[in-house]
Write a structure and sequence with these properties.
- The protein is α+β, with helices and mostly antiparallel strands.
- About 35% of the residues lie in helices and about 20% in strands.
- The protein has helices spanning about 5-50, 60-70, 85-90, 190-195, 230-245, 250-260; strands at about 70-80, 85, 110-115, 125-130, 130-140, 140-150, 155-165, 170-180, 215, 225.
- Helix 1 crosses helix 2.
- It is elongated and about 90 Å long.
- The chain binds flavin mononucleotide.
C-alpha cells in the first residue's frame, strides 16, 4: 500500500470515529435531557422547601420532596403590573408552569427587561418580568410566600429564595442554591447557623420602607441580621438584593396586598 493510501485510510478511520462519537454524545444528551430537567425541578423544589423551613437534610431526602412540595402552588406574577396572573393569562404568555424556568427567559425581551443602572441596587442587569412565586395555603389562608431572589455577591450572581409568612412581612427563612462565593467566607451564607437568624425578622417598618438589613458585625432587633466576618462584600450583596427585591421595583407591590390583608 502506498503512503498516500495509508494517510487516506487513517483520515477515513478518524472521520468515522468522530461521527460515531458525536452520535453517541448527542444521543446521550437527548436521552438524559428529561432526567436533567427532572433533577433541576427537584432541586428547585427542595430549595423552595428549604427556605420555608420545611426541608431538613438531616431528616428528609429526595423521596420526601414531592409530598412536601405538593403543599405549594406556583404562581406567576407580573412585576410591572404588581399582580398575580390568572392561569389563562399565564398560558396566553406561552408559559407552561410545570416547566417554566425564569432564569432561561432572562435574555428574552418578551419575558424580561433591562434594569436601569440607577435602580440596579442588586447589580443584576436584567430582571425577569414574570417571576414564579410559591404559595403555601392551609384552609384557604396563605401561610407562606416563597420569592426567588438574586443579586451580585463578590464573585458572581447569587441565586436563592426568601420565604415569608402570609402577612407579607415576617421572614420564614432564606436559602441560596447557587453562588460563586468562597467556601468558608462568602459561601457561609449557606451555613445553617447564619440562616437560623432570619426566621421572625421583619421586612418593612411602620412607614412601609424596607428596613430589613444585613449589618457589618452583630445585628440586633427585628430588622437586623449579623454580617459574616471576613465576607462583608458578600453580605453587602445579600443586603442589596433584599433591598431591591422587596422594594418597589421588585415584590413590594405584590407584598403590599398581603400586608394590607393582614392589616399592616
Ligand atoms: C481568596 C479570597 C477570597 C475571598 N472571598 C470572599 C468572599 O467570598 N466574600 C467576601 O465578602 N469576601 C471575600 N474575600 C475578602 C474580601 O476581599 C474582603 O476582604 C472582605 O469581604 C472584607 O470583609 P471584612 O470587612 O468582614 O473583613 C476574599 C478574599 C480573598 C483573598
Amino acid at each position: 500500500m502506498s503512503s498516500k493510501e495509508s494517510i487516506n485510510k487513517t483520515l477515513f478511520v478518524a472521520f468515522c470515529l468522530c461521527v460515531a462519537c458525536s452520535i453517541i454524545v448527542s444521543g446521550t444528551a437527548v436521552v438524559l435531557k428529561p432526567r436533567q430537567d427532572e433533577n433541576r425541578i427537584l432541586d428547585r423544589n427542595k430549595n423552595v422547601l428549604s427556605a420555608a423551613g420545611l426541608y431538613d437534610p438531616a431528616v428528609d431526602d429526595d423521596s420526601n420532596v414531592a409530598a412536601l412540595f405538593a403543599q405549594f402552588t406556583p404562581r406567576i406574577v407580573d412585576l410591572q403590573a404588581g399582580e398575580f396572573l390568572s392561569s389563562e393569562e399565564v398560558s396566553d404568555l406561552g408559559i407552561d408552569i410545570a416547566t417554566y424556568d425564569q432564569r432561561t427567559v432572562l435574555n428574552d425581551p418578551a419575558y424580561s427587561n433591562a434594569v436601569p443602572a440607577d435602580e440596579d441596587i442588586a447589580d443584576i442587569k436584567r430582571r425577569v418580568q414574570y417571576p414564579m412565586l410559591y404559595l403555601q395555603e392551609i384552609d384557604g389562608v396563605v401561610e407562606t410566600i416563597v420569592l426567588p431572589i438574586n443579586g451580585y455577591g463578590l464573585w458572581g450572581i447569587m441565586y436563592g429564595f426568601l420565604a415569608l409568612e402570609g402577612d407579607g412581612n415576617t421572614v420564614k427563612g432564606i436559602s441560596y442554591y447557587e453562588l460563586r462565593e468562597t467556601p468558608g467566607l462568602g459561601a457561609e451564607v449557606r451555613n445553617p447557623s447564619w440562616m437560623a437568624q432570619w426566621p421572625g425578622k421583619q421586612i418593612y417598618d411602620a412607614s412601609g420602607e424596607v428596613a430589613l438589613t444585613v449589618v457589618k458585625g452583630t445585628g440586633s432587633g427585628q430588622y437586623e441580621i449579623d454580617g459574616l466576618s471576613g465576607a462583608t462584600l458578600t453580605t453587602r450583596g445579600v443586603d442589596n438584593m433584599i433591598e431591591y427585591w422587596l422594594g418597589d421595583n421588585g415584590y413590594g407591590p405584590i407584598l403590599d396586598q398581603f400586608r394590607s390583608a393582614a392589616g399592616n
